[in-house]
Amino acid sequence: MPLVFVVLVAEENVDFRIHVENQTRARDDVSRKQLRLYQLYSRTSGKHIQVLGRRISARGEDGDKYVETDTFGSQVRIKGKETEFYLCMNRKGKLVGKPDGTSKECVFIEKVLENNYTALMSAKYSGWYVGFTKKGRPRKGPKTRENQQDVHFMKRYPKGQPELQKPFKYTTVTKRSRRIRPTHPA
């Protein structure tokens, strides 16, 4: 009888990012889309993203015109709350505002980074990120990388929106007691 050995090799540095990226490439028809109001804080400019019609900047103060995110899975569509224009990236990598956000140019894949910042990668142009300079000017997609501070953002709730900032309400759970039935005289 031949002797068979099976050798199992365990990888120490398993990287699940490839699996996550493959799962988030296609839009998910099952997941519900969620509408959220945020201010996207740019790490480099120290200001918030503004969608001012066709112009995009990261010069907004705290409490200024904020953005509305339409999330489905890890894919995000960003709309200026007051202008109703969507943040999009054209084929040259320029950030522009468009009134119709249904094209894939207006969809971004949200990546939460190790430093707890968020990077927004274009769903159409893989490897191109939303980024801003120190002066709040948009950077072109082909010149951005995930590890650059220019593409790091933080989601913040808008100032003066207390209904969005309600804390979770915890309910106490009590052990269910036996119900005592009233005794009826026979």
UniProtKB/TrEMBL annotation:
One of its GO terms (cellular component) is extracellular region. It is found in: Secreted. One of its GO terms (molecular function) is type 1 fibroblast growth factor receptor binding. The keyword Signal applies. PROSITE patterns: HBGF_FGF. Its main location: secreted. Keywords: Growth factor, Secreted, Signal. Residues 143-153 have a biased composition (Basic and acidic residues). Residues 136-165 are annotated as: Disordered. It holds the Pfam family FGF. Belongs to the heparin-binding growth factors family. PANTHER family: FIBROBLAST GROWTH FACTOR. This is Fibroblast growth factor. It comes from Macaca mulatta.
